[in-house]
Amino acid sequence: MTMHPKRDVVIVINPGSTSSKIALFKAGKMVAERTLNHSLAELSQFDAVIAQKDFRMQVIQEFLADQDFSASEVLAVAGRGGLLKPIPGGTYAVNEAMLDD
């Protein structure tokens, strides 16, 4: 991946069954990471994994707000897992078919 001088931040998210792991890379070096644990009481209010989206987004945004970076610096966001149907590993640009899935 070619780095752009003003866009060198990569956000990596690994949503698990009871936690969300997130790391922030700047210029190829990890500068912050956190495991955000979610209690069963928090998760039991949701009837499906997809219903947790806003809850998990909020805790991730709170982590990012604590870091010293600007959204304009973000080059890429990478995620592991999620709600897509199984696909081969690799790099994908998000498209309408993925959003519909």
Characteristic terms for this protein:
alpha+beta, four-stranded mixed β-sheet, 4 strands, Nucleotidyltransferase, domain 5, 101 residues, 22% helix
Task: Please explain how this structure is put together.
The protein is α+β, with helices and mostly antiparallel strands. The protein has a single domain (9-100), classed as 2-Layer Sandwich (Nucleotidyltransferase, domain 5). The chain is built from three helices and four strands, in the order E-E-E-H-H-E-H. A four-stranded mixed β-sheet has the order 3-2-1-4, with helices on one face. The longest helix has 13 residues, at 53-65.
User: Which class in CATH terms?
Assistant: Alpha Beta
Report the helical percentage.
Answer: 10-25%
CATH architecture: 2-Layer Sandwich
Q: Average pLDDT across residues?
A: 85
Main β-sheet, spatial strand arrangement: 3-2-1-4
By CATH's scheme, which homologous superfamily applies?
ATPase, nucleotide binding domain
> CATH topology, what is it called?
Nucleotidyltransferase, domain 5
Structural class: alpha+beta
Binned strand content: 25-35%
Q: Based on CA inertia axes, which overall geometry fits?
A: globular
Q: What's the structural domain tally?
A: 1
**CA radius of gyration:** 15 Å
Query: How many helices?
Result: 3
Which sheet architecture does the biggest sheet show?
4 strands, mixed
Number of strands: 4
End-to-end separation in angstroms reads: 27 Å
| Topology order in helix (H) and strand (E) letters | EEEHHEH
Low-confidence stretches: none
